Amino acid sequence: SSGINAEYGDALATHFRHEFDDMRQRTNILAELSNKLHKLCMKNDVSLVIVNQVRTGSEGGVQPCLGESWSHTAHRRVFLRRVSGDVYSATLMKGEKSGETTDFRISSRGIRDCPSQATSMK
Fold first, then answer.
1. Main-chain dihedrals φ then ψ at residue 89, nearest 5 degrees
2. In whole angstroms, how far apart are CA 27 and each of 38, 76, 84, 92?
3. How far apart (Å, rounded) are the C-alpha atoms in residues 47 and 33?
4. Element (H or E) spanning 35, and its range?
């Protein structure tokens, strides 16, 4: 059987959100980091999941903390949000099925789907 090789990275934005006064330098470093990570993943046949924090933008919408240029480096983007209580929503924002949404629950038994609540973004 073939498994999926994946690595997970979190809190990347922490190191880039407030440490740079020069946004051009920050963008260049993020682009170089993205390029190196992509090559490393291709060489080792590994998928990489990186969490990008979001913030409320100046007009009230949600914006990625690392900026739009970083968000374009991903092959797939999934937007996760809490719907209520233990119910969460995952919306594919970039990829073949962009706009599709599904709800799920997180419990002591793990992650479970909520088929009656599955929806699609229009």
1. -125, 140
2. 16, 20, 35, 24
3. 15
4. helix 23-44
For residue 1, what is the DSSP state?
-
Work out the number of other CB atoms within 10 angstroms of the CB of residue 70.
21
pTM of the model: 0.63
Supply 88's token pair: 């969460």
Helix (H) or strand (E) holding 87: strand 87-94
d(CA 121, CA 92): 9
What confidence tens digit (pLDDT) does each residue in 62-106 have? 787 887 777 777 777 888 888 888 899 988 887 777 788 889 998
Instruction: Convert the pLDDT of each residue in 1-12 to its tens digit.
Output: 456 677 777 777
Within 13 A of 33's CA, how many CA atoms are on the CB side?
Answer: 17
Q: Report the C-alpha dihedral over residues 85, 87, 92, 98, rounded to 10 degrees.
A: -110
